[in-house]
Amino acid sequence: MGGREKQYDLQDRSESCLVPESPTPFNAADFLAQAGLGKKIVRFRKSAKIFSQGDIGSSIFYIQQGKARLTVISEIGKQVTLAILNTGDFVGQECLPAEHQLHIASATALTDCVMLRIGRKEMIRVLHDEQIMSEFFVAYLLERTSRIQDDLIDQLFNSTEKRLARALLNMANFGKVNEPETNIPKISQEALASIIGCTRSRVNLFMNRFRKAGYIEYNGHIKVNRSLLTVLLHDADPAIRERSTVKAQKPNEISPKRTKTRK
Hints:
globular; Arc Repressor Mutant, subunit A
């Protein structure tokens, strides 16, 4: 009997010394890269509707590849572009606060897009259960809020020229962690006008000036050169100002050069 009790005692001690295996640590990048329970990878062709203004928001989208555009239409039918979203952005997060929340804007694919569609309940669950994901999402929302503030300041205080330059640089991902995409998706001058809040004719004027100054290559598709940053870094660009001033003056307004006569 004593031997059996000793045997059982050793077995109990050995089992109590076993360390339970720790679960695999949560990784936000892996969560946003793979399909799974409550989430699915979806693809949208260029110009396809992701969701429309007024639709019930049941999912949030994470852009894995491509670009999307957020637009809103007023009661009288005027359409305004709110934002151009790139790889790494979330779309449709306004559905999270309440069930059956309506989308306040429409989302359209500017290019062929690959997105992760996450159900509202799954997104709320992972934000509640996983601190790493919660911190990641909060950091994204803060950065997005900062971008919106920058857009508002840009709209209120900067010239049309600067607003257009900034919009083109943003679409080309200048100033972000990833390498700039100098060739940006084809976008109409009407769409650019709605982004920066001006007329199409003004966009056409400055696009031509940027092209002549060598800041962009514009022939249907747009290629943004790094030199376009000079428009933002200086109060006014002398090369463009000089060209536009001379072009705007009529021949009879240009004063002839006076020659000095020796006495």
